[in-house]
Amino acid sequence: MTAAFVLGNGVSRLQVDLAVLKTCGKIYGCNAIYREFVPDVLISTDQPISMAIQNTGYATSNRMYTRKPIPGLGAHRVPQSYYGYSSGPIAVAQAALDQHQSVYLLGFDMGPVTGDRFNNVYADTEFYKKSNSKPTFTGNWIRQLIQVTKDFPTVSFFRVQGSTTANIEDLTKIKNLVHMPMTDFLYRINNTKDL
Q1: Exposed e or buried b for every residue in 110-145, given b needs 16+ CB within 10 A?
Q2: How far is CA 186 from CA 64, 177, 180, 194, in A?
Q3: Integer distance in angstroms from the first to the last C-alpha of the chain?
Q4: Neighbouring-strand partners of residue 177
Q5: pLDDT at 1
Q6: pLDDT in tens, 132-157
Q7: Which runs of consecutive H residues, i.e. helices, occur in the chain?
């Protein structure tokens, strides 16, 4: 099975050309990414944005998962075992459920940008906090990612780290999760395709 790339919405992922990435494997995206790019799978769990996406008709022609699909609009219900999880960890789990053996996490920054501010490429847009807001609490995301890696012990997970990616000690203890510098990842997808 090809590699899978799970796109969080931390600003570090802006370094990656999504058109190039598309040639390297399947892409799993979260929430507002659908505004600019159609991933192979979209996950959206927060009800306001999830409903807005479904009401555009997006899920009738694209694979989308949410907690409470609107009947007749095409979205799928997230897997029961991950029902209470956030969009990013569900996307990681779905990539593993789809039998990808190498799953790359991009934009899973889980830390602030300069000035201890909200780190999200969609800051200041509908359904998102302002760019001058405090960072989002990441404890739940961390616990959920740890559980997903335990649920799929034979899958190799790679957390790609850019300049805005936080170092999180709990994630460094996971046996099947490797931390990869953004420079190494970009070299691979742009030159060797060795994933």
Answers
A1: bbbbeeebbbbbbbeeeebbeeeeebeebeebbebb
A2: 27, 18, 10, 11
A3: 12
A4: 157
A5: 61
A6: 999 988 999 999 999 999 999 999 99
A7: 18-22, 47-55, 58-61, 87-97, 139-151, 169-172, 182-187
Query: What is the amino acid identity at position 31?
Result: N
Q: How many other CB atoms sit within 10 Å of the CB of residue 179?
A: 16
Q: Give the closest residue to 159 by CA, choosing from 8, 1, 50, 2.
A: 8
Residue 12, amino acid:
S
pLDDT digits (tens, 9 = 90+) for 94-137: 999 999 999 999 999 998 888 899 999 999 999 999 999 999 88
Report residue 45 as tokens: 């769990």
pTM above 0.90, yes or no: yes
CA 69, CA 111: separation in Å to the nearest integer? 30
d(CA 152, CA 65): 20
DSSP code, position 55: H
CB 32 within 8 A of CB 128: yes
Percent of the chain with pLDDT over 90: 91
